[in-house]
């Protein structure tokens, strides 16, 4: 059996237990660094924390399974590319699920109600955070209503802090397209939120 | 060109980032614990695969058959469905329906069928 067959093998040189362990630790550190932001980005996109947790876990598994041999500085855009694909698939499944429910005479129960879906920070958030929490809710709602590509470009550039090249890799589009989607997203958000954010 | 709009755009992005960072910082302990568990589970799953311990993913034949029948009947002549943000689906609905991660949807349908039967039974027994 080939020595480079192992999932955590980073090259085709003989894989020692120590090098496998080191790669696993490196992955663990990487995931620990990105997981909280990734969770919030996924949560804003699908508006459900449990679903977002599933999406983040699946992205971790796919990165570890398929791309661990890539240089670690490529992991961040690759991880977000996997996550964004997962989010798009999630929306497709929701669309099909809704049609199945309608076919069975059920009303889809996932129609988004930003007020109902917004996290209730009132009980556990100190008063001084209330204004921030409300502003974040407005922002989440506005970002969630952006077209998919604009939402992805905005969240990856602004929330995750990826540069244009990294965002282009994560979205699988050209850098020029990233700039266009990002610019339109910001313009749209400014129109939606501007007067409330002054 | 750096007009007033560009300045406003930058301000909005800065403000949005600050709010997002704040919301990340305020994730509760239970969520952080779940994230940690998910990370460990992901690493363990891939690690087990590498050592040849693949956990079985088999779908009951009845589930596949049910999904296939539903897909064929429901999707006949069905137009392409736009996503909420105006995009159209590119993956086949059939593939999505029979995907091995959609068992929960089938289970829900079975649950609804059971619920209807149970409700019918109880109404028959009343009086």
How far apart the termini of chain B lie comes to 80 Å
Question: Shape of chain A, please?
Answer: globular
Total number of helices of chain A: 8
Q: Helicity level of chain B, as a percent range? A: 55-70%
Tally of extended strands of chain B? 0
Portion of residues within helices of chain A: over 70%
| Low-confidence region ranges of chain A | none
When the domains of chain B are counted, the total is 2
C-alpha end-to-end distance of chain A: 64 Å
Low-confidence stretches of chain B: 53-59
Shape of chain B: extended
Largest beta-sheet details of chain A:
none
What proportion of the residues of chain B form beta strands (DSSP E)? under 5%
Beta percentage of chain A is under 5%
Q: What gyration radius of chain B follows from the Cα positions, in whole Å? A: 24 Å
Number of strands of chain A: 0
Describe this structure in words.
The complex is a heterodimer of chains A (198) and B (127). Chain A is mainly α. Chain A has a domain at 12-111. Chain A is built from eight helices and no strands. Chain A starts with 16 loop residues before the first helix and ends with a helix. With 127 residues, chain B is mostly helical. The N and C termini of chain B lie far apart (80 Å). The model of chain B is unreliable at 53-59 (pLDDT under 50). Chains A and B meet through α1, α2, α3, α5 and α6 of A and α1, α2, α3, α4 and α5 of B.
Outline the secondary-structure elements:
The complex is a heterodimer of chains A (198) and B (127).
Chain A (H helix, E strand, L loop, with lengths): L16 H30 L2 H18 L8 H29 L10 H4 L9 H18 L3 H12 L4 H8 L3 H23 L1
Helix pairs in contact in A: 1-2, 1-3, 2-3, 3-7, 5-8, 6-7, 6-8, 7-8
Chain B lengths: L3 H22 L3 H22 L10 H15 L17 H6 L4 H23 L2
